[in-house]
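Handover notes (outgoing to incoming on-call)

Open items:
1. Putative GTP-binding protein 6: sequence verified, structure written out, both below. Nothing else pending on this one.
2. Nothing else urgent.
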Amino acid sequence: MNLNKISILTNHVFLCRYAWRKLCAEHVLGRRYMAFATCKPIRFFQCTSKLVVTMFPCPRQNLRAGVAVPVLPARTLSLTACMFKSKNHNTDNNSLEEEEDEIDEAEIEELFQQQIPTGISEEEHRVFIVHPDVKWGSRKQYLTTAALQMEEAVGLVNTLYNWSVVDKIILSTKTPEKRRIFGKGNFQALTEKIRATPGVTAVFVNVECLSPSSEKELQEAWGVKVLDRYSLVLHIFRCNARTKEAKLQISLAEIPLLRSRLRNEVANLDQQGGGSRYIMGSGETLFEMQQRLLKERELKIRSALERLRRKRHLLRSQRKHRDFPIVSVMGYTNCGKTTLIKALTGDAGLQPKDQLFATLDVTVHAGKLPSHMTVLYVDTIGFLSQLPHQLIDSFSATLEDVTHSDLIIHVRDISHPETVNQKVNVLNVLKNLQIPEKLLNSIIEVHNKIDLIEGFEVSDPEVIPISALKQHGLEVLKEKIEEAVVKYTGKQIMTLKVQLNSPQLAWLYKEATVQAVDDVGDDCTANVKVIISQAAYGRYRKLFQIFLMESESCLTLHRQQRN
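Putative GTP-binding protein 6 structure tokens:
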């Protein structure tokens, strides 16, 4: 192994202080991965045919005393594995890079359960809901009402198992930016009402995000746990998370919440951090240590999400190679996206639920259009108003699939009283995702749940009215999807003359969408009507050039005989 390979290896593996501290922790716990350190900061030597590296300078007293220092487990730096990678060997099965990119389930679970920033226990909660009704200013909501916002807040609480609403109140405020949110009189009356309500275990203040100081002051005044929309939605996400992807993204979304509350928690602990099982720099305070550990946790999560992004990129490349059109189904939470995809695909594995944030993962489902063209429908997480942008940013790894789709279906619950406000929120999120202008212009707006509106009439001819549950209007929607897919993917509808004794027809069935086959008769040829992409048509002409020349010759001969 030459020096260049050694340099790449050390940069790849050891530029992480977290790994060194973890190894020291393993040493304390009695693990047997040991090697004798030398006085040089970087040293390579052979130990049972494995490459062992010590990179960080060791304490002088340890060097003088000849103390053994723990390093990475030998199997982590197998010499065979390193040489295998350096030669860029790549196999289809069990490749080393695939093994490295595999996200360990136990590691994800450890990150997910490491620290719950909301501080909400899993037990039953009786919640008092407070909605601040802002009378004017930039925080006033003009497309909705306080009563409708309160209704959504009640729905959020009722989403959680064993949670119930014991009471609710709407209070006007002119100072939503202050720590107590309300004026002195309203705050005093609210405090008395909360304390007089029996059995209250938490208060949900229906605002986007409370500052740590505001949360602390409200908890001291009311004597119970105080929640905002950010912390409550995060807890709902935690309860609904099932896959590695969802758990990783939720863990990342919790980082800003942890960071904002960290200073408040350690304000009275300005002591020097000592006696820890971690190796800390001299003079490092507890706050600095926790900030550093939080940063390392964030880097670890982002690294795992980057592996997830690469995996999704590979899946997208495979779908692109198969030339399947991709249709993303988006909308406000609980608008009926999953129900619609189930109706379009007939996928019995989809189990829609009448609750907020029932879907936290982006899933793909195949369906057929009237022309028998196969399309892939992408089910996405629902959106919600008044949420910090960090929460949506955390799900960018999965929402990235939307930016690579060919078409977007925007599903609206047209029976909801806030349907206009919900539409505005969804479109704002789509713009923040930096979706290409061409894709934004391709959006098909679908008005769902028309069965809940008596005498529903369509006001916009471009809108498709449906009932996904009753399966009304689905055929019209499929025709609209097919028309848009052909338009925005550059596919062509053409009639090709093929020889029936050649593999042309079988190839077209596999690589294109065959709509009709008309048998010509005498010359063993047929006219085949297909929907085909330009790339597939180019491959078709290249593969079957001989047959195409023969077909053209036969056609010329047939014309001469007629003349």
